[in-house]
Protein backbone atom coordinates (compact mmCIF):
# COMPACT_ATOMS: atom_id res chain seq x y z
CA UNK A 1 0.00 0.00 0.00
CA UNK A 2 1.51 3.37 -0.94
CA UNK A 3 2.24 5.73 1.90
CA UNK A 4 0.87 9.22 1.19
CA UNK A 5 3.02 12.24 1.88
CA UNK A 6 3.46 15.81 0.70
CA UNK A 7 5.52 14.94 -2.35
CA UNK A 8 4.62 13.01 -5.40
CA UNK A 9 1.89 13.09 -7.96
CA UNK A 10 -1.00 11.36 -6.25
CA UNK A 11 -4.36 10.63 -7.82
CA UNK A 12 -7.74 9.23 -6.90
CA UNK A 13 -6.37 5.80 -7.86
CA UNK A 14 -3.86 6.12 -4.99
CA UNK A 15 -6.53 7.50 -2.64
CA UNK A 16 -8.59 4.34 -3.15
CA UNK A 17 -5.70 2.19 -1.86
CA UNK A 18 -5.08 4.12 1.37
CA UNK A 19 -6.36 2.98 4.75
CA UNK A 20 -9.96 3.93 5.51
CA UNK A 21 -8.86 4.55 9.11
CA UNK A 22 -7.07 7.72 7.97
CA UNK A 23 -8.50 10.78 6.25
CA UNK A 24 -6.55 12.12 3.29
CA UNK A 25 -7.13 14.80 0.69
CA UNK A 26 -5.29 15.40 -2.56
CA UNK A 27 -4.90 18.88 -4.03
CA UNK A 28 -3.01 19.25 -7.30
CA UNK A 29 -1.46 15.83 -6.77
CA UNK A 30 -0.18 16.56 -3.23
CA UNK A 31 -1.56 14.40 -0.41
CA UNK A 32 -2.56 16.00 2.89
CA UNK A 33 -3.52 14.07 6.01
CA UNK A 34 -6.57 15.36 7.89
CA UNK A 35 -6.59 15.43 11.68
CA UNK A 36 -9.47 13.99 13.67
CA UNK A 37 -12.16 16.61 14.35
CA UNK A 38 -12.59 17.96 17.89
CA UNK A 39 -15.90 17.72 19.80
CA UNK A 40 -16.48 21.48 19.22
CA UNK A 41 -15.88 20.97 15.49
CA UNK A 42 -18.38 18.10 15.47
CA UNK A 43 -21.04 20.10 17.33
CA UNK A 44 -20.76 23.02 14.91
CA UNK A 45 -20.78 20.69 11.92
CA UNK A 46 -23.81 18.84 13.26
CA UNK A 47 -25.74 22.05 13.96
CA UNK A 48 -25.09 23.43 10.49
CA UNK A 49 -25.82 20.10 8.83
CA UNK A 50 -29.17 19.78 10.67
CA UNK A 51 -30.38 23.14 9.38
CA UNK A 52 -29.28 22.45 5.80
CA UNK A 53 -30.74 18.94 5.91
CA UNK A 54 -34.12 20.15 7.19
CA UNK A 55 -34.32 22.79 4.47
CA UNK A 56 -33.34 20.38 1.67
CA UNK A 57 -35.65 17.50 2.67
CA UNK A 58 -38.18 18.17 -0.10
CA UNK A 59 -35.74 19.68 -2.64
CA UNK A 60 -33.53 18.25 -5.34
CA UNK A 61 -30.21 19.38 -3.81
CA UNK A 62 -28.50 17.22 -1.19
CA UNK A 63 -26.24 17.93 1.77
CA UNK A 64 -23.44 15.64 2.98
CA UNK A 65 -21.12 15.82 5.97
CA UNK A 66 -17.57 14.51 6.28
CA UNK A 67 -16.28 12.07 5.53
CA UNK A 68 -17.72 12.51 2.02
CA UNK A 69 -15.37 12.23 -0.96
CA UNK A 70 -15.52 15.00 -3.56
CA UNK A 71 -13.51 14.50 -6.73
CA UNK A 72 -13.14 18.07 -8.04
CA UNK A 73 -13.65 17.37 -11.74
CA UNK A 74 -14.31 20.38 -13.95
CA UNK A 75 -14.24 18.85 -17.41
CA UNK A 76 -14.89 15.55 -19.14
CA UNK A 77 -14.96 12.36 -17.10
CA UNK A 78 -11.48 11.36 -16.14
CA UNK A 79 -9.87 8.08 -15.15
CA UNK A 80 -8.99 7.56 -11.49
CA UNK A 81 -5.33 8.11 -12.39
CA UNK A 82 -6.12 11.53 -13.93
CA UNK A 83 -8.08 12.89 -10.95
CA UNK A 84 -5.58 14.96 -8.93
CA UNK A 85 -8.02 16.81 -6.62
CA UNK A 86 -9.92 14.88 -3.96
CA UNK A 87 -11.31 16.66 -0.89
CA UNK A 88 -13.50 15.80 2.09
CA UNK A 89 -15.20 19.07 3.07
CA UNK A 90 -16.92 19.31 6.44
CA UNK A 91 -20.23 20.02 4.66
CA UNK A 92 -20.94 19.68 0.95
CA UNK A 93 -24.08 20.74 -0.91
CA UNK A 94 -24.66 19.44 -4.42
CA UNK A 95 -27.56 20.07 -6.77
CA UNK A 96 -26.53 17.90 -9.73
CA UNK A 97 -27.41 14.50 -8.35
CA UNK A 98 -26.31 12.76 -11.57
CA UNK A 99 -22.70 13.25 -10.43
CA UNK A 100 -23.13 11.23 -7.23
CA UNK A 101 -21.82 7.66 -7.23
CA UNK A 102 -20.98 5.07 -4.59
CA UNK A 103 -17.60 6.76 -3.95
CA UNK A 104 -18.92 10.31 -3.51
CA UNK A 105 -19.31 13.27 -5.85
CA UNK A 106 -17.70 13.80 -9.27
CA UNK A 107 -17.71 17.49 -10.03
CA UNK A 108 -17.86 20.93 -8.44
CA UNK A 109 -20.20 21.24 -5.45
CA UNK A 110 -22.57 24.21 -5.29
CA UNK A 111 -21.50 25.01 -1.73
CA UNK A 112 -18.79 23.94 0.71
CA UNK A 113 -18.39 24.62 4.44
CA UNK A 114 -15.06 24.12 6.19
CA UNK A 115 -14.67 24.46 9.97
CA UNK A 116 -11.13 25.53 10.78
CA UNK A 117 -8.93 24.18 13.53
CA UNK A 118 -5.41 25.31 14.47
CA UNK A 119 -3.98 22.58 12.24
CA UNK A 120 -6.18 23.38 9.21
CA UNK A 121 -5.95 27.20 8.98
CA UNK A 122 -3.49 27.26 6.06
CA UNK A 123 -5.35 24.48 4.28
CA UNK A 124 -8.82 26.06 4.58
CA UNK A 125 -7.89 29.74 4.18
CA UNK A 126 -5.30 29.38 1.44
CA UNK A 127 -4.95 26.04 -0.32
CA UNK A 128 -8.62 25.01 -0.40
CA UNK A 129 -9.80 28.62 -0.80
CA UNK A 130 -7.75 28.98 -3.99
CA UNK A 131 -8.78 25.56 -5.30
CA UNK A 132 -12.50 26.08 -4.61
CA UNK A 133 -12.38 29.50 -6.26
CA UNK A 134 -10.51 28.16 -9.30
CA UNK A 135 -12.91 25.26 -9.92
CA UNK A 136 -16.00 27.43 -9.36
CA UNK A 137 -17.60 26.49 -6.02
CA UNK A 138 -20.41 29.09 -5.87
CA UNK A 139 -20.42 29.60 -2.11
CA UNK A 140 -17.66 28.82 0.40
CA UNK A 141 -17.99 29.22 4.16
CA UNK A 142 -15.06 29.23 6.57
CA UNK A 143 -16.27 28.76 10.14
CA UNK A 144 -14.02 29.93 12.99
CA UNK A 145 -15.05 28.15 16.22
CA UNK A 146 -12.67 30.16 18.42
CA UNK A 147 -14.14 33.54 17.42
CA UNK A 148 -17.64 32.17 16.75
CA UNK A 149 -17.48 33.66 13.25
CA UNK A 150 -18.58 32.56 9.79
CA UNK A 151 -16.87 34.02 6.71
CA UNK A 152 -19.01 33.65 3.58
CA UNK A 153 -17.38 33.90 0.15
CA UNK A 154 -19.60 34.18 -2.93
CA UNK A 155 -18.24 33.53 -6.43
CA UNK A 156 -18.59 36.75 -8.45
CA UNK A 157 -19.16 37.21 -12.18
CA UNK A 158 -15.39 37.47 -12.71
CA UNK A 159 -15.09 33.92 -11.27
CA UNK A 160 -13.35 35.19 -8.12
CA UNK A 161 -14.51 35.28 -4.54
CA UNK A 162 -15.43 38.78 -3.42
CA UNK A 163 -14.74 40.14 0.04
CA UNK A 164 -16.29 37.87 2.66
CA UNK A 165 -19.48 38.65 4.49
CA UNK A 166 -18.63 38.02 8.15
CA UNK A 167 -21.29 36.81 10.59
CA UNK A 168 -21.16 36.47 14.37
CA UNK A 169 -22.82 34.03 16.73
CA UNK A 170 -26.01 36.12 16.96
CA UNK A 171 -26.60 36.35 13.19
CA UNK A 172 -28.67 34.55 10.62
CA UNK A 173 -26.72 33.86 7.43
CA UNK A 174 -28.45 34.28 4.07
CA UNK A 175 -27.45 31.37 1.84
CA UNK A 176 -26.91 32.81 -1.64
CA UNK A 177 -27.59 29.60 -3.58
CA UNK A 178 -31.06 29.26 -2.01
CA UNK A 179 -33.26 32.38 -2.07
CA UNK A 180 -35.24 31.58 1.07
CA UNK A 181 -32.70 29.90 3.37
CA UNK A 182 -31.20 31.58 6.42
CA UNK A 183 -28.95 29.60 8.77
CA UNK A 184 -29.40 30.63 12.41
CA UNK A 185 -25.97 30.64 14.08
CA UNK A 186 -27.21 31.35 17.62
CA UNK A 187 -28.36 27.82 18.53
CA UNK A 188 -25.16 26.40 17.03
CA UNK A 189 -22.69 28.62 18.86
CA UNK A 190 -24.72 28.76 22.08
CA UNK A 191 -24.18 25.02 22.52
CA UNK A 192 -20.40 25.05 22.37
CA UNK A 193 -18.00 25.61 25.25
CA UNK A 194 -14.62 26.98 24.26
UniProtKB/TrEMBL annotation:
Putative restriction endonuclease domain segment(s): 13-184
Family matches, as InterPro entries: Nuclease_put_TT1808, Restrct_endonuc-II-like, Uma2
Pfam families assigned: Uma2
The keyword Amino-acid biosynthesis appears for this protein: no
GO MF annotations in UniProt: endonuclease activity
Record has Nuclease as a keyword: yes
UniProt keyword annotations, A-Z: Endonuclease, Hydrolase, Nuclease
Protein name per the record: Endonuclease, Uma2 family (Restriction endonuclease fold)
Amino acid sequence: MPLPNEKGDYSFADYLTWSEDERWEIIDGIAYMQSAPSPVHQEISGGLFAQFYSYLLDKSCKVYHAPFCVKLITDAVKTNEEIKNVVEPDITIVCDRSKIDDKGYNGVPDMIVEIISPSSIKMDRLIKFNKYEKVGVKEYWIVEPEGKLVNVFILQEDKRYGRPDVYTEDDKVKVSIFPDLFINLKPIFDRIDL
